[in-house]
Amino acid sequence: MTDDTNARIDALVKDNAVLLFMKGTPLFPQCGFSSRAVAILNHLDVPFESVDVLQDQGIRHGIKAYSDWPTIPQLYVKGEFVGGSDIMMEMYESGELAELVQDVKTA
Amino acid sequence: MPMAADDIAAMIRAAIPDADVQITDLAGDGDHYAAHVTAASFAGMSRVARTRAVYAALGGRMGGELHALQLTTAVPA
């Protein structure tokens, strides 16, 4: 990964309280796992930004190294890596995800 | 090249010897799986750390050969 890509990812992660790296867009997800991640965030009614990794090969590969995580989607909340869609679903079902984004919703 | 469910389970057990691995072939096509991995050694580890341990067991196949693997982890009750 180039330093430039790393810096771009770093800025995205730090500038967006809830950020989803995904395949496609929230309206047109291009993968079932990304679709599930969007559905969870929509259920929580939390505002979020997304990055379509299919539109940016640098980020598509760079994010895997940045997060030390081999798959997309990837969720970041307040600059911290949360996980992929399976972890999001577990945390949604347990209520932890709602708690994590609570102050983002009310901000 | 898709992986067989038994191969996936064997790789996870080889790296995490106390793991109980349940694999479901979601689509019946040998390519879309759900794995549930339960291991006492996961105690005290975050979800991210547990998942990374399983991904490491799969030796870099996640995101490549293994695209569609749902993965959940747990500590024995």
Count of DSSP helices of chain B? 2
How big a fraction of the residues of chain B is strand? Answer: 25-35%
The strand count of chain A comes to 4
Calculate the terminal CA-CA distance of chain A, rounded to whole Å.
Answer: 34 Å
CATH topology of chain A: Glutaredoxin
CATH architecture of chain A: 3-Layer(aba) Sandwich
| Tally of DSSP β-strands of chain B | 3
Q: Could you give the order of strands across the largest sheet of chain A?
A: 2-1-3-4
| Radius of gyration from the alpha-carbon trace of chain B, in angstroms | 12 Å
Percentage of residues in helical conformation of chain B = 25-40%
Provide structural commentary.
The complex is a heterodimer of chains A (107) and B (77). Chain A is of the alpha+beta class and 107 residues long. Chain A has helices at residues 3-15, 32-44, 57-67, 85-94, 96-106; strands at 18-22, 49-52, 74-77, 80-83. Chain A has one domain: 3-Layer(aba) Sandwich (Glutaredoxin). Chain A has a four-stranded mixed beta sheet with strand order 2-1-3-4, sandwiched between helices. The longest helix of chain A has 13 residues, at 3-15. The N and C termini of chain A lie far apart (34 Å). Chain B has 77 residues and is α+β, with helices and mostly antiparallel strands. Chain B contains two helices and three strands, in the order αββαβ. Chain B has helices at residues 5-15, 47-57, and strands at 20-25, 32-38, 68-74. In chain B, strands 1-2-3 form a three-stranded mixed beta sheet. In chain B, strand 2 (32-38), helix 2 (47-57) and strand 3 (68-74) form a beta-alpha-beta unit. The N and C termini of chain B lie far apart (36 Å). The model of chain B has no long low-confidence stretch (mean pLDDT 91). The A-B interface holds A 32-33, 64, 68-72, 81-84, 86-87, 90-91 and B 47-48, 51-52, 55, 60, 62-64, 68, 70-72.
